Amino acid sequence: MKESLRKVLKFISSMRFAIILLLVLVFACVIGSLIPQGYSYSYYYSAYSERLAAIILALNLDSVFHSWWFVLITAFLVLNLLLCNIIRLPSLIKRTKAYTSPVNLPNSFPKAGETIEGVYKGDIQSFFKTLGMKSSSGSDRHYAHKNVIGVWGAWICHIGVLLLILGYSLGQMTYKEYTVYGVPGEMKRIGDTSLVLSIDDFEIGLREDDTVEQYTAVITVYNLEQGTEGRTAVISVNNPADLYGLRFYQNSTGWAATVSVDKEGAFLQESVVCSGDYLVVSDNEDLVIYFNAFYPDYVLIQGYGPATRSSGLNNPAYLYSVYYKGRILGMNVLLKDEVLTIDDYTVHFTEPQNYTLIQIKKDSFTFLAFIGGLVIMAGLFLAFYVQVSAVEAVECEDGSWKITATCKKSNMAFKNKLNEVLTSEPKGEENNV
Amino acid sequence: MFEIENTLFTIVMFSYLASMLLYFFYIAIKKETLSKVAFAVQLFGFVLHTAAIICRGIGAGRLPLTNQYEFATSFAWGLCLLSLIFIFRNRFYVMGAFVSPVTFLLIGYAAMQSKEVRSLMPALRSNWLGIHVSTAILAYGAFGVAFVLGIIFLLRDKLSARGFLDQHIPNKEKLDLIEYRSVSLGILFLSFTIITGAIWAERAWGSYWSWDPKETWSLITWLIYAVYLHLRVRRGYQGKGAAIFAVVGFICVLFTYVGVNTFIPGLHSYG
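Output (structure tokens, whole complex):
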């Protein structure tokens, strides 16, 4: 039993298993990018054959990155990295010690990479200096090492991947997200929190060519538990604001209109409705006015439908639908000054204006994922560009020095430098033997 | 300024075409001086290419890294830069005959794209854009070099039947080493690209990772090269196995750049 467990652990921590997992992850990611993710069941039955749609839904291929099997693969990868790093730790410490404090040279000389041997006949101190190394002084034996931390590159990189996965996973499990939309002057409660968001101002910055340069909103957030004093911030795309432990993003925009309802000529109700939202008639809840879309410069294109020529309010038009007891009664476009009449009710769409959609998020573990990313970068840099090397020089009877050096095969710079020094004529006659 | 850019771009295309043909003649005629001339023409094209990109940046009033044309021409620029460095450092001029067709195809692809300068959408108006995209260009360039080296590695035995190429192509061990150095550089830059992209996405969209197709394919590319790095330290998989992954990795790079934009809509649809 112990033996089989040992074998399983050995396999799980092996590089072969790591490669298999990486390839499986690649395959899963390819599937996840090719099959549209997160759509409704009916979408897959309409987009694919019935059999294929059934397979997609049964295997969670409609939500690959949140499926149990994707999480399982990632969990195995975490286990693999963790075990690999734990198992490698003693040998790395041993290697580091072997480089930094070698005993019984040259028997304990670390030979993890390529070994280069040669003879040097010049001044040994200047030899080490040329290589950019400081040797431990001894009468007939010198030793120097460089960039020992490079040994830890891959190990540190693995730690970075673990931190990144941990940060992302914890973030996914604990993050909170709210959406608030409205027009300037409106105040709305932020989800289940004690916070209230006031949209003080919203502006769309346009360029001369009518393209959008920036969306900017001025918001004030009030904490109902802390009195009436609010905190104000200006947010725009790429410039979120942090208030009360939440981050506020200027996410998107759309059109809103003031919808007023009269009954038998008398005012009944009025409110600002955003496109994509609806108004329930206050004295008849079975009757609902849905605001489908707004066209600031309306034009009807044959074969296409309603559209807008520009973003200027030259010919405003409101596309609406009327529902009664959940059933659609009709859909049409209202031009400026036109009204909608439904039995005793008269509906007016006026004062079109832009609304802002503000996304509010809290992910306490984003920093961990970013630290993970930075640690990965550091690990890769150490592994590739901070390469360990060590040189031992032992004085021979004829006064020359027997050089033994070690470095990674890919450490061309060190190898070239060493060969250059070994083949060059030593400076100063007094160093020649 | 755009007229100057257009003129420079046309000269760059012809320079890259000329350097490609010169590299081919170098191998066909086996005349050493041709390799130097081909390299010089490639370098000349690269200098003008740099000038063309600068002209576009000045004309557009922003970093020219935001649409298919701008990225394609920068991609070709990155590949040309990295290949010049690797050819020069290793005195490996035969590589030019393999890398120049890829550079020419990329610049040709750029020529087919719309050169219209469009105003930036608000999400792209970020300081992260320059860092994110420029590191992607260098990563892609390094992977392009690794791809070419992988191909040369896989064809080396067949190519070495010709005495000239046998003398002018490094041995398999050295090829593997140069390829590894190229992938190392590429994966370092790609990691930086992904991290800076995540930081930018967090500020722009409120989510540093959304499994957007471009994000997913950059992760796929990263994973492929991670497999490459692991294979290289396993006995029996060095050389050929790693070379295959260097080739596959670059195919992923191309799909990340062209395929995702063409076939899969997402947050990166603009570029």
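Residues 1-119 of chain B form one domain.
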